[in-house]
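Researcher: I'm preparing a figure for a lab meeting and need a structural model of a single chain. I don't have an experimental structure, so a prediction will have to do for now. The sequence is pasted below. Please return the structure as tokens so I can convert it later.
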Amino acid sequence: MFPHYARKAREILEGVSGLAGEEDFRELLCGDCPFYHHGEEENEECGSYRILKTLLMKGALDLEAILDALE
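Model: Understood. Here is the structure written out token by token.
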């Protein structure tokens, strides 16, 4: 389940990657969405993306807890 999220979350937790820019958030939160196509010019933000991004930025979501719940 959610292989793109799992890979990116592990990279962040291991310090290999971060959430420094918009593309990092898109890769983490949108990578498993069938409507997201990495590298396309048009990257519309859905409501779910906006909510999850805000929660991550405010520390209300724990990447490790989400990974645990997915396993």
